[in-house]
Amino acid sequence: MPASSFGESSAHIRRRRVAHYLRTESGAAVLLVIVTVVALVWANSPLSNAYFELWHLDVGFNFGPLRLHMDLHHWVNDGLMVVFFFLIGLEVRQEFAHGSLRDRSRARLALIAGVTGVVLPALVYVLIVKLAGSEGLHGWGAVVGTDTAFMLGTLAIVGPRLSGQLRVFLLTLTVVDDFLAVSIIGIVYSEEIRIVPLLIALASLVGLWLLGRTRQWRATPYVLIVIVLWFATVYSGIHASLAGMAAGLLIPAYATQRHGVVAARQLFRDFWQSPSAASARAVDCGLSQGISVNERLHEFLRLPTALLIVPVFALANAGVDLRSGLLAEAFGSPVTWGVIAGLVLGKLLG
């Protein structure tokens, strides 16, 4: 075999191996670390102005009475990351429906851990700031939430053998933790909550629940309602991640039924004997009906979320300027130590 052909074959094999690795949780986590380092280097390089100007770039649209404008940083955090939290909600719903969380004791433990993971960090923060006699007690909201994307990425790197056992527990804990944290922050810290968009968001959640009750198998109605839910949540002033998690939890999940597989097989036989556009559509619909809309949406969103959305989130949020001396000044503040103790000690105890 010519050397050039062998080289091309080897390069193709290497690319295929890299692509396969990136599709794993560990590969996606390594990509997350790489992008985080890139963000830090960029934010502390001579091109740092370009980094911060990029994320403050105003992006929006006007469509009739609808007007939505945010900087690029908010589009990432309140837009793209909603898909990530939606994916978490989908996975937790699957576990409650036909996974390990069908065991009530396990589900109860995760729920309790989620609640204590919100309460104890806030108490630790208040205790430290109070003992130091410092102002800033109102900042306790900074420690009640968990950075889910980085937490799951870290778990995939440092404990690949344990991640399968702990993932469901951590996902459930995270959903409870973030639900409580976002709700508390929304109520305590929001300057204004708009009632009409909030009511539309609640109506959208009811719509998702009704679709699930009627066993609607097509994904399109769910997706359209989720889009309406996102718009309404953003306009209401509540953090959009709450909408993503709530929507994911309401998408029905069920184990593949044998009769659905048998029906799909018969439809495929009909297509094999008499191929046509109509029979092809029937096969597609039959296969879709055999698998829950939850699982289909999860499979569709999993790779784009891991390989695009979460890395973009890291790029937008991990860039901290360490050159200005603000970091040293921050470590001299009791508020900073309260945040560190709350997030480390409080979360571990919780």
UniProtKB/TrEMBL annotation:
Top-level taxon in the UniProt lineage: Bacteria
InterPro entries reported for this sequence: Na/H_antiporter_dom_sf (IPR023171), NhaA (IPR004670)
Topology with respect to the bilayer: Multi-pass membrane protein
A cellular component annotation (GO) from this entry: plasma membrane
Pfam family, one: Na_H_antiport_1
Protein name, per record: Na+/H+ antiporter NhaA
GO MF term (any one): sodium:proton antiporter activity
Swiss-Prot/TrEMBL keywords: Cell membrane, Ion transport, Membrane, Sodium, Sodium transport, Transmembrane, Transmembrane helix, Transport
GO term, biological process aspect, one: regulation of pH
Transmembrane stretches, start-end: 21-43, 72-90, 110-128, 140-159, 166-189, 195-211, 223-251
Organism: Pseudomonas helleri
Localization (cell): Cell inner membrane
PANTHER family listed in its UniProt record: NA(+)_H(+) ANTIPORTER NHAA (PTHR30341:SF0), SODIUM ION/PROTON ANTIPORTER NHAA-RELATED (PTHR30341)
Signal sequence segment: none
